[in-house]
Amino acid sequence: MEGACGGSCACSTCHVIVEDPDKYDTMPEPSDDENDMLDLAFGLTETSRLGCQVKMSKEIDGVKIRLPSMTRNLQAADFKGAKKS
Q: Do 31 and 40 touch, CB atoms closer than 8 A?
């Protein structure tokens, strides 16, 4: 897993697919920023998350994830008019 933005929720290279819908349902909802980045992810599914935004907890202990077959290294700053830090 690449994690090109270093965990700042500014790309989609850490896209993961949660294999267990019950575990997915125990996770907090993705933020608007995470959903925006997920829109750029390859192979988006109903249980997609950005790995850098998933907080480990006892509720999701043992969660099984898979990586999509490829990633896109698109970052928020790649879009015209986006703020660059």
A: no
Distance separating alpha carbons of residues 48 and 29, to the nearest angstrom: 11
Strands 48-50 and 65-66, how do they pair?
unpaired
- pLDDT for position 11: 87
pLDDT average, residue stretch 42-59: 94
Alpha-carbon distance of 23 to 63, in angstroms, equals 6
pLDDT for residue 59 is more than 60: yes
13-42: burial string, b at 16+ Cβ within 10 Å, e else: bbbbbbeeeebbeebeebeeebeebbebbe
The stretches of the chain forming alpha helices (DSSP H) are 21-26, 32-38
Residue type, 26: T
